[in-house]
């Protein structure tokens, strides 16, 4: 789901906390059933705190995770001990420095390495730009950059997931993989020309342009994605996205 907002007043993208937590818990549900309940609750508490930049109280975490206040306190105390969350003077828990270390370890800090190029691209084209990777049969947004010098823009939260079979980004990620039986005709076409444009596959009325970022195995398939309600904006940005993907390929190789 995309969100439209005044980007000039929001330098960073935050989606409604309840929506984010609902999606995170839904994605994790099948694995939770087979794993440790205590670990699952701790991770859910961590996700809840990370999704709330204003911080959460012990009771608010309990409500979001669905546990008693005493259990919530124990979970937060453990997370604090590992420096993943920290308790402020106002009694609220917020993300702590330990999360930055964990985040930097993902794919050799690919997000931070790519941010300058993605920001420059978003400002140049005046539309939302994202970096996505393939994870199993899903595409995952690891960076979403919204331009600051425009009135309204489309945005979606980092960490959002969609099937690889949908949208420009999914097609570009499949094109970065070896051929598969039964793949859509547009996938080998994208392998050949290096880019793909789609319309309305994930969000009605939205155009998407995606370009694979060439990387060496075992790095996950990666792509740059550009979204807009305007087809002319997407088509005009093709060459710039191709150049950005080439720069990232060199940077990440």
Largest β sheet strand count, sense and barrel closure: 6 strands, antiparallel
User: Rough shape?
Assistant: elongated
Total of helices? 10
Approximately how much beta-strand content do the residues carry?
15-25%
Q: What do you see in this structure?
A:
With 253 residues, the protein is α+β, with helices and mostly antiparallel strands. It is 46% helix and 20% strand. The chain is built from ten helices and ten strands. The strands form three sheets. It has a six-stranded antiparallel sheet with strand order 7-5-4-10-9-8, with helices on both faces. A two-stranded antiparallel sheet has the order 1-6. A two-stranded antiparallel ribbon has the order 2-3. Helix 7 (167-175) packs across helix 8 (186-193).
Q: Quick recap of the structure?
A:
This protein is of the alpha+beta class and 253 residues long.
Present the secondary structure layout.
Blueprint: E1 3-6, H1 17-34, H2 37-50, H3 58-65, H4 69-81, E2 85-87, E3 93-95, H5 97-105, H6 110-125, E4 128-135, E5 138-145, E6 152-155, E7 161-163, H7 167-175, H8 186-193, E8 196-199, E9 207-213, E10 222-228, H9 231-236, H10 238-252
Helix pairs in contact: 1-2, 2-3, 2-4, 3-4, 6-10, 7-8
């Amino acid at each position: 789901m995309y969100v439209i907002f005044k980007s000039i007043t929001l330098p960073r993208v935050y989606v409604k906390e309840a929506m984010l937590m609902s999606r995170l818990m839904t994605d994790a549900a099948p694995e939770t059933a087979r794993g440790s309940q205590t670990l699952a609750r701790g991770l859910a508490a961590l996700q809840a705190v990370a999704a709330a930049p204003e911080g959460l109280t012990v009771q608010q975490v309990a409500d979001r995770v669905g546990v008693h206040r005493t259990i919530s306190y124990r979970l937060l105390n453990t997370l604090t001990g590992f420096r993943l969350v920290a308790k402020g003077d106002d009694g609220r828990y917020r993300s702590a420095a330990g999360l930055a270390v964990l985040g930097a370890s993902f794919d050799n800090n690919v997000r931070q390495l790519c941010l300058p190029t993605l920001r420059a691209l978003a400002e140049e084209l005046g539309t939302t730009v994202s970096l996505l990777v393939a994870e199993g049969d899903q595409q995952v947004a690891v960076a979403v950059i919204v331009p600051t010098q425009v009135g309204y823009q489309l945005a979606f939260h980092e960490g959002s997931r969609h099937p690889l079979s949908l949208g420009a980004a999914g097609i570009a990620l499949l094109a970065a993989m070896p051929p598969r039986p039964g793949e859509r005709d547009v996938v080998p076409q994208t392998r050949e020309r290096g880019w793909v444009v789609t319309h309305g596959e994930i969000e009605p009325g939205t155009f998407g342009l995606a370009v694979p970022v060439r990387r060496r195995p075992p790095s996950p398939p990666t792509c740059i994605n550009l979204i807009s309600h305007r087809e002319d904006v997407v088509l005009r940005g093709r060459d710039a996205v191709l150049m950005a993907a080439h720069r990232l390929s060199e940077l990440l190789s």
